[in-house]
Every structure is written in C-alpha cells, then in structure tokens.
C-alpha cells in the first residue's frame, strides 16, 4: 500500500510513483464521485452508468482514503495500464486535476493480453440466439450450418436464404466463410443477404452475424484492436510514453 513508500522522502535520489492496474476510466469515475459529483451523462461519463456506491465496505473505503490523504503527497506521478488510443479523454481529465501539484501521468499499457471470459451456464445474460431458441417449442427449429471450412458465392447464399424463408420453418442459420482465425484480417469477405431479408423472416428465423449493426460492431472492434495492438509497437503512443517515462525518471 501507499504507506510503504513513505520512507522514499528521506532519500535524495528516490521518487515514488503510483501504478494503477485498473483503467483510467475507473480512476476518473472514482475521483469524480469522491468530489461528491452526481454521475450524469456528459462528455466523459455515459448515461445510466452504475454508481460505485455500495461496491466497497465503509471500512475499506476509509482505509483507502486514509492512505491517499496521508501518503498521496509523496506521489510524484501515476502510471496506468492503458493506452491513450482508448482512454485519452480520461487521461486528460486526470492530468487537469493534478496540474497544480505537478503530478505527471503516463499511459504505458496494455501490459497484459486480453482474454474473453467464458460465460457460465448460470449467467442470466445469454446470446440473443439462445434467448430466442428458448422461446420456441421443442423440435420446431432447424439449425443450418455448413461448418467453418465451407464457402458459398453470393448467388448460392441468396438461393439458400429464399429456400429457408419459403420453407415456413423456424430456423437458425450460421452464415460465414471459412474461419481464418484472424480478427485483424481486413480482407475477410462479408456475405450479403437479399435486402430486407431479416425483416421478412422476423419471428421465424435468425441469420447469425449478418446484420448491419453487427457488421459495424465487428469492424469497429477490429479497428480498435489494431489501434491498441499498435500502441505498444515501435512508434506507438504507449511506446512513446514509455520512452518519456524512462527519460523522466532518469533525468
């Protein structure tokens, strides 16, 4: 905890820095509520964001606040496990709050690889396909999938789409090209269905992964992934901040 660095003030050539393992957004939100501000939609915080109230016991909150008030004055700068590509607004917010104190902030991450957690069976939030399937009678839904090693041309896709619609049967259709296992591949083919197809089978069928919104989300995620990945590469924003941090502590 912060108390362990108190002795650093007695060393003429030593400085203490705070490492935040959480996001700059989380730190900003905590600081915002600590000032007694109400969480309202603005340029920093989205609408209906849950409050931190009740997340910690009073004892834990008091312990943290005590450390900050007693030992925060020994802090020279803050290091965050994030990158400005994603959290520049929150880094700017934190920097403005400590301008008078002369505390510097560096976004040097991400330090750790990101993994997608496996959702447990007890989780209340399910994939929309499963939610829809649970509402259907037993043995009334056709599952259509040709595996991840099969591809169709546009004409074949349209014919299959029409056939499923005209069958009047309920279905879930998993439609995608051979899986290349590379989410950063910008050349991946996008299968197109006939215009208005999803509306024409509404309530009868689901074609997974084909809506414009989901395509846009996937494209956005790919772009963000490339940006974050590039931030730690040579010339990336996090790499440059690391160089700035090293230059600062070795000045």
Automatic annotation (TrEMBL):
Positions of region (Disordered): 195-235
One BP term from GO: carbohydrate derivative metabolic process
Pfam families, A to Z: Glyco_transf_N (PF26168)
InterPro entries on file: Glyco_transf_N (IPR058980)
Residue intervals of the Glycosyltransferase N-terminal domain: 1-113
Domain of life of the source: Eukaryota
Single GO molecular function: UDP-glycosyltransferase activity
UniProt family annotation: Belongs to the UDP-glycosyltransferase family.
The protein's name in its UniProt record: GLYCOSYLTRANSFERASE
